[in-house]
Amino acid sequence: xxxxxxxxxxxxxxxxxxxxxxxxxxxxxxxxxxxxxxxxxxxxxxxxxxxxxxxxxxxxxxxxxxxxxxxxxxxxxxxxxxxxxxxxxxxxxxxxxxxxxxxxxxxxxxxxxxxxxxxxxxxxxxxxxxxxxxxxxxxxxxxxxxxxxxxxxxxxxxxxxxxxxxxxxxxxxxxxxxxxxxxxxxxxxxxxxxxxxxxxxxxxxxxxxxxxxxxxxxxxxxxxxxxxxxxxxxxxxxxxxxxxxxxxxxxxxxxxxxxxxxxxxxxxxxxxxxxxxxxxxxxxxxxxxxxxxxxxxxxxxxxxxxxxxxxxxxxxxxxxxxxxxxxxxxxxxxxxxxxxxxxxxxx
Amino acid sequence: xxxxxxxxxxxxxxxxxxxxxxxxxxxxxxxxxxxxxxxxxxxxxxxxxxxxxxxxxxxxxxxxxxxxxxxxxxxxxxxxxxxxxxxxxxxxxxxxxxxxxxxxxxxxxxxxxxxxxxxxxxxxxxxxxxxxxxxxxxxxxxxxxxxxxxxxxxxxxxxxxxxxxxxxxxxxxxxxxxxxxxxxxxxxxxxxxxxxxxxxxxxxxxxxxxxxxxxxx
Lengths: 347, 217
Known about the structure:
The complex is a heterodimer.
Chain A: E1 2-11, E2 18-28, E3 33-38, H1 44-51, E4 59-64, E5 67-68, H2 74-81, E6 84-88, H3 99-109, H4 114-127, H5 143-155, E7 161-165, H6 173-190, E8 193-198, H7 201-207, E9 210-215, E10 218-224, H8 225-230, H9 235-245, H10 251-256, E11 265-274, H11 282-290, E12 293-304, E13 307-317, H12 320-332, E14 336-344
Helix pairs in contact in A: 3-4, 3-5, 4-5, 5-6, 11-12
Chain B: H1 3-40, H2 50-65, H3 68-74, H4 76-83, H5 89-113, H6 117-125, H7 130-141, H8 143-161, H9 172-182, H10 186-214
Helix pairs in contact in B: 1-5, 1-8, 1-9, 2-5, 4-5, 5-8, 6-7, 8-10, 9-10
């Protein structure tokens, strides 16, 4: 369980002050996987570092498993950090230690004896599937294997919380999904709470339960992943979603789009279906009911966890009155209708 | 070469090795902690102490900016206090050590600077104390750079030790000046230079070998 309350972080003072985090509030229940997504420089890294106090918040409080982190002494903080594992984008393995000794490091820091270390490291290497690499050095491993070692190392001190700082950003897509699979397993089997930051929607979609969107140091959305992917509340959220779905109108259409409608134009709309609307034949009903023709330019169906999401870019062909009515009909049936612009009628 | 001459060259070689070894070892023992301090007390480092860092930096720079030949004569009272005499190889080892400490410290600091800050951060995230970061992460990870730095120091000490003759210290440089130059004996001069070249090559090869052996990248 992680509770971040009214956390702000400011670097510098006066006119040089940079507000990396502004009054952030976030609660992550035990055993959940929470994603924080945002663009570069939005404050994701600062936020995740405030949890284990690699960065000290300027104001506000951070508590992990009920322990207020900002009030701990140095020694207490080091002990609290044993309960919080962390993995990084660039793995941060010690190059001069073998895989075994890298995983052993947190246990050495805690003063465990050799026997206890061995008993702990061997099953961890098994868990991450690297038992045969124990005596190798990180330079001999692939990126995915390095991150597996880092995960084993982060789990060595039996933490309740795992922080993932862009853990898959340096990996190719296949490796990313295998690392995400491993994280999901760890969450499932060990009940470890995971906070991850990423700029990739794919990561959020595949393993997160909840997601927050961070923009310019502020949390602008906090939602169930299914809700976020079907109905983001902010413009930035929609941009992330569109980027992820790659559902943007063809270029030549965008060039022909005009902002304002006229007698001789048709609206081009983006429709988002979720829930029951996905399985209802709304488009054909629409054609009958409102006497418009629907020209589908692009369409896509995505499943996000237990939800299905349909997206479509379509041109509504009919008189202005008819197309208005059509849009009202769609909205009445729980579709999101976004008018992208208007195109000249083909004569 | 007469046997007397041979003894002279042998003695000078041993003297040089003695001065380099004594000053090299002591300078490492004192320069390594100083170099680590220079690094870890920097602003935003694990033991950030900006004022101390400034002071250490200035002291180190002063030490490094005094020409060795001047340092040697300037600290004669200190040398006499420490080893009871101001001439001989023990006396020459004192300024050699003093000159090498800041030299070693800067090279160690440079070696530590090469370590990815991410490694320090990850050790901190595991709850490592500053001392643990130094002993478990910084020094082991920088060992290649540290060995390189110590090799450079030894080579530099060989050449500095040649100046020790100026305070009546022995060694190959002294031999080369007194017999090779002042008595115009080109054979001695040549032998001296050849031995110094071989010695430097030896140190360098040994250093390179150790760096290769420690390198896991």
